[in-house]
Fold:
Amino acid sequence: MLRTFAEHAVRPMMSLDGRWEFVTEQDKPEMTANGIPANFVRTIQVPSAWESLPGLETYRGRAWYRTVIGGLEGYSLRLVFGGVSHTATVYIDGEKIGEHYDAFTPWDIVAPGLSEGEHELILEVDNSFGDHSALHIENDYYTYGGITRPVEAHYVPEVFLEKIFAKPFRKQDNWFLDVRIRLRNLAAKKRRRQLAVNCAGSEFFFDQVVVAANTSSEFRCTLDSLDVQPWSAEQPTLYFLEAELIQEDDVVDDLVDRVGFREVKTENESVLLNDEVLHLKGFNRHEDHPQFGNALPLEAIAADLELLRDLGANFIRTSHYPNDMRLLDLCDELGIYVWEESHARTVSFEHPKFKEQIAVSTTEMIEWHYNRPAIISWGCLNECASETPAGRKEYEQVFKLMRQLDDSRPLTFASCKLENDICLDLVDIVSFNIYVGWYGDSIKGVQSRLHDLIGWLDSGNSGGADKPLIISEFGAGAIYGNRQRNHSKWSEEYQADLLDESLKVYLEHPRVSGVAIWQFCDVRITPGWAWGARPRCMNNKGVVDEYRRPKLAYELVRDRFKWATTA
Ligand code: ADA
Structure:
């Protein structure tokens, strides 16, 4: 399923995870006039990355998935995808009904009024690079192929609950919840309904809501004086938020989400959660695994989070894209703070599709993940052109969009331009990627480099003075098992030395609000990328290797993080 909890008690729905028929373009299937295969040569597990199939380890191109689904009299079919990598085109009974770009955001598509009985569902999936893709490019991570996250079939009435947004806030010592409910009307005429909302014993009833024909409308209420415990990493208390749609006294649809009562803000160089200063200690984590590609099953996601907790981390950055909703649910449950960012790692703003695709990725990220208490900051545009006036215009656009979608969380982006950055006035949190001791300089230079950088930052014209500072990337490559008494680069010893010195400096400095080591585990990269010559064609800066085997640095990072907690 898409979540770690049930989102519906009333709405008929089912998981579409399981064996689907499958064929790739290199199988040279016979094609119908509609451009879909007439025959399928094998089956594949959904969700999965097709690179986990022997023979398809490096396949980049198109493939087709087929399954059969049922229609339900009086209902429309709403398909919900956790993520398809990276472009999906959806066909029902041979007719194209829609498409979606970007592997990393959930999306849905509705087949209105599907008749009772069996229907053929085909997805064309494409993970190729080119003029059609501005965000999925040859990069220092791998773009896998396939239906890589769970899929669900929902059966919805003509007016259904599309989304629910909940923003907790506190006045004196009382908690309130601003609730925004989006209804979608599939009918060609306006419809009247009633709505009931409840959370933690507080409820609100909309005696009448009207939704115009063929459109979505939002309805707002505030649940007040909620008798609840706050959410924090130390005490991640969650509450169900339930909405019911009522037609002539019958509950015809429902939607359940979970909320945590916390406020996040920045004040005087600190990140505050419920007015407590946060000290963020954690990692950058790619969704990547040698067996599963980016389609990690829930158990593997949970195992990664257990390792992160064992390391003493309270923070992860979803570098460089929105993550699986089940990871975010687990972070809500375990109390792990998350910086989630829309999909971009050093992408070209000149790409013809950039503006459209970054807007969709950012909007979908915030709209689908808005209620996650663990997400304490939205990020975007990792190491893009934040040192040029043209680049600034793009940053301004994305920050404006993020603030329109969510005024409750601080915003940031990870910059490698440092003293040349001209966008720091746009952020609430300044974040720098610093590779002293790896790309130039020596490990001994960590302290002086930070000193110089903070001197510039607080000089008054950086745009970042009086704002919290996160060291959002730092680290060194180490090949697992490469132990060298000479502590040469690529040895586990060198990585341990660099992380030990970096953590000593960054964790102790009062101006630093948080750190995110680059990175949690070794990950596959795309051949042909600038430094595709990386050893093993992997990014080897993990503190564990791709099989999650700990390197020498593991223990010292754990000691440093644990000590920082007690300091
Ligand atoms: C950059 C980038 C990361 C990774 C890192 C590295 O900071 O943001 O994705 O490529 O460098 O390993 O060099």
The mean pLDDT is 97. The two ends are 41 Å apart (CA to CA). The pocket of alpha-D-galactopyranuronic acid is lined by residues 140, 319, 345, 382-383, 416, 433, 473, 518, 539, 541 (CB under 6 Å). Helices lie at 298-310, 325-334, 354-369, 389-405, 446-457, 492-508, 553-566.
